[in-house]
Amino acid sequence: MARPTAMDEQFVHQIPELLPDVAVRHPHWRESYFFDLHRPDAAGDVVFFTMAHYPAREVMDSLQMGRVGGEQVIGLLQRPYDGDPHTTEVPGARVEVVQPWEEIRLWADPEQGAAIGLDVTFRARTQPYGLRRGTMRAGDDLVWDQSHILQSGVYSGTYTVGGTTHEVDGWIGQRDHSWGIRDHGRCPLWMWLQLQFDEGFLGVWHWELPNGARVYTDGCFAGADGSDPVPLVGFEHDLEWYGADGSTIGYGETGEKVVGLRGRCAFTLEGGRRFVVDAEGTFDRPYEPFHRGGLNQMRVRTDDGTSGSAIYEITGARHHRYFPETVVHGILPS
Q: Helix (H, G, I), strand (E, B), or coil: what is residue 284?
């Protein structure tokens, strides 16, 4: 039986259960924050920071990962609920919402085990956008049932690796708040593309089956002028992995020969506006050995000559184009 928490005193319940209980009991149910921060030219260090909780395991954790000084870095900190599944803090890391949808402070301490030290503030540059709920099944198994909120922002502060502290001044990036079921290793193709331009951000969340059939697509363009986000109604992708010599290669089983990603995507918004975007970048944070694929820091250019930066997250399993040779445990959606 769940014990009431301090948050249970508040008018925040959505189902007739205490807050530590969720609507569907599932080992992959989680709620998480995800932050990416990189230079506006996407040509240097990149840092990713998460905070998540898992009701089935009653655990809160934080990942600090990225590429700093050309080296891939990753670390995990965690704590048991111990009666508190709501405070977004673990020993050595925390997320503080200073003002909802406006300002968030991220903090991590290498002296307490964080792989990347952080003392940065995210300040929103667009409105947040809530994606519609998406669901994917493999037979009777629920593989994915989740919602997301996207928002672009500007970061300031510092990050520290190996005893060296670096300044963050005007770095750009995305925040993502998601909740629901995510059995990530069994999703055939997941794309999370977040493109940053002076005018605003362009984002998409896209899933496919192994044969390329579309399961889900949603996203938006959100202006830096604070205007209402415009929904995405069409998306096409034509990307490829490349190796150390610049030639096109397959991902293989574990992606050990991949150094980058490049190609073209097209985004169509409600009302007819269309972006055709060429992108090229580096495979900065592979998810191996936990999942296939990972996070790529990209330089992007639209068909009207506008340049920007982006993070392209491409992950999956047995997808006919991006991950045809990967090994997967469990039944895939089909």
A: strand
pLDDT given for residue 334 in this prediction: 67
Query: What pLDDT shows up at residue 1?
Result: 61
- What size, in residues, is the chain? 334
Q: Residue 187 and residue 28: Cα distance in Å, rounded?
A: 13
If you search the block for the tokens 């830096």, which residue do you land on? 224
Alpha carbons 237 and 276: distance in angstroms, whole number: 10
200, 126 Cβ separation under 8 angstroms: yes
Cβ neighbour number for residue 258 with a 10 Å cutoff = 21
- Distance CA(175)–CA(38), nearest Å, equals 12
User: Which residue shows structure tokens 């672009």?
Assistant: 152
Its pTM stands at: 0.95
Averaged pLDDT, 248-262? 96
* Max Cα–Cα distance, the chain, nearest Å: 59
Place of tokens 């919602």: 147
d(Cα 330, Cα 186) in Å, to the nearest integer? 7
